[in-house]
Design a protein that fits this description.
By secondary structure, the protein is mainly alpha-helical. The protein contains 21 helices and two strands.
Length: 506
């Protein structure tokens, strides 16, 4: 075993213990709602998670310090394994309740391992695509577990990267453009503490806010957790469409709060100033796109249905752009153009450093700037010099080139994977689903959103579920770490074959 494989296994051991701690924290829900049959599955989750995690960590705790490549592989592999542990409560509880004649089909579907694994991946990646036909029929403990996986997954990726990687290294540059603010505080530990402080504060405020506008406590808790994490799981059958219009409007600021980066939240809370919201290019883009996208979608819906769908257009566009995935209407009945507009919003995503998925608006801004810079260079006179500015600051030509190149590479990967995913889904879904339907589903999975046209269903063939799981996994980690993970065995095989070839020739 190579030294760095030991390092990867040691660090994975630390991260695999997260589901176990979550399971232990969920035990009080079993007693509060008199669902003690769920204690066993939660304890099995805790035991598997902690024993496996501690075993790996203790076996390889003397391993060497991780390098950049191996830290990225650790991140990708950990987020590929954690959902397997998170699927245990779904399987265990569904298997236990299957013995009762009155158990709803929604619960029975989770006896299928693919469905349980899919739900866990959708939760931990804060995607929100769901195999639950009627979430209101789920036991309280599973409603809570779904919300908790999204709540931890939404902020956990950021904290995970900050914990596993030193953000001053080149690792963070694989995930965002070079101008991004990488730390909230001077030290990594203080950065992580501030992120969790902000997250907990906003969660508490969100719960009180939804309770004030009319939700009861249990829905307010769950929908705040999934809204702020831009995840999208709901505990009602019609998502937020179950509630009155003023309640739907009250959810919008929660989604937007989850789409604003933590460094900006930190400035808003500590300095009590709104100016940082429009001093950052990506947040300026967020505000512009929220208004412009709502208007375009409103006009498209009027063109298609001949009625002004003000609230539906606003809510669905905010949900798409923030990659939250909460819905108030059946978007399968929308026009193909409307679906493609939502797909574009999910591909863009909101700001880097928040809980959202998607390409992120800092990269979208970089691509937009790259186009402007290109046209300016063409129109320059021989005696003129080109100036590059981003976020109000001057940057060098080399920095501008690297910024645009990084954004372009990720954009190409994103568009390619959405296309590949849509083509794959076309071959396994019912003929009634159009190209715009499967394209939206693929964009939703890769963008960690959760808006669905109905393609995601317990009866979807396992190949389709696997395609969506892979897209959710890759999209939440922004593709690069997963590609590094998949290329690592090929690199090791190449080295082994090369070594064998040299030995044979000698």
């Amino acid at each position: 075993m190579t030294p760095y494989l030991k390092t990867v296994l040691r660090d994975i051991g630390l991260l695999l213990q997260v589901p176990g701690l979550m399971a232990l924290l969920s035990l009080p829900v079993c007693w509060i709602f008199d669902e003690t049959y769920a204690v066993g599955p939660l304890l099995w989750t805790a035991a598997a998670s902690l024993i496996l995690g501690q075993g790996l960590y203790r076996c390889f705790r003397q391993a060497e310090k991780a390098r950049l490549r191996h830290s990225l592989i650790t991140v990708a592999l950990s987020w590929g394994l954690i959902p397997f542990l998170g699927a245990i409560p779904f399987l265990g509880i569904a298997t236990h309740l299957a013995t009762l004649p009155t158990t709803p089909l929604t619960i029975l579907n989770f006896q299928e391992p693919w469905n349980a694994l899919f739900e866990s991946f959708a939760g931990f990646t804060s995607t929100g695509l769901s195999m639950a036909l009627h979430p209101s029929q789920l036991p309280h403990v599973l409603q809570w577990w779904r919300s908790l996986t999204e709540w931890v997954g939404g902020v956990g990726v950021i904290v995970l990267l900050l914990t596993v990687l030193e953000p001053s290294t080149d690792a963070m540059q694989l995930y965002s453009a070079e101008g991004r603010q990488k730390r909230i505080a001077l030290t990594l530990g203080e950065t992580v503490r501030r992120i969790w402080w902000i997250y907990l504060l906003y969660t508490g405020l969100g719960i009180l806010w939804l309770r004030l506008v009319g939700m009861t406590w249990w829905p307010a808790i769950n929908h705040t957790m999934t809204g702020l994490s831009t995840g999208g799981f709901a505990i009602t059958d019609d998502s937020i469409g179950t509630y009155a219009p003023w309640v739907q409007l009250a959810v919008v600021p929660i989604m937007i709060a989850g789409a604003i980066s933590f460094p900006i939240h930190d400035q808003l809370l500590r300095k009590r100033r709104l100016a940082p919201l429009w001093q950052s290019s990506q947040h300026q883009a967020l505000l512009v796109l929220l208004g412009l996208g709502t208007l375009v979608l409103l006009l498209e819906n009027y063109w298609f249905k001949d009625e002004w769908l003000w609230l539906e257009s606003l809510f669905q566009w905010v949900s798409a752009l923030t990659t939250c995935g909460i819905s108030t209407t059946d978007i399968q009945r929308w026009s193909p153009t409307g679906k493609l507009l939502l797909s574009l919003g999910m591909i863009f995503g909101a700001t880097s450093g928040s809980t959202v998925g998607g390409i992120k608006l800092n990269r979208v801004v970089s691509l937009y700037k790259g186009v402007l810079w290109r046209f300016k260079r063409i129109s320059l006179q021989p005696h003129q010099m080109m100036r590059y500015r981003l976020n109000g600051e001057g940057i060098t030509e080399a920095q501008a080139s690297r910024q645009v190149e990084a954004a372009a590479v990720l954009a190409v990967l994103w568009v390619s994977l959405v296309g590949i995913g849509a083509l794959g889904l076309l071959h396994v879904t019912l003929p009634s689903y159009s190209l715009s339907d499967v394209a939206l589903e693929a964009a939703s999975a890769l963008g960690s959103s959760g808006l669905s046209t109905g393609v995601t269903h317990p009866n979807l063939p396992w190949v389709g579920k696997l395609i969506l799981i892979l897209l959710m996994w890759m999209g939440r980690l922004e593709i690069i770490p997963v590609l590094l993970l998949l290329s690592w065995p090929l690199g090791q095989l190449g080295k082994t074959l090369g070594r064998l070839g040299r030995q044979a020739s000698s």
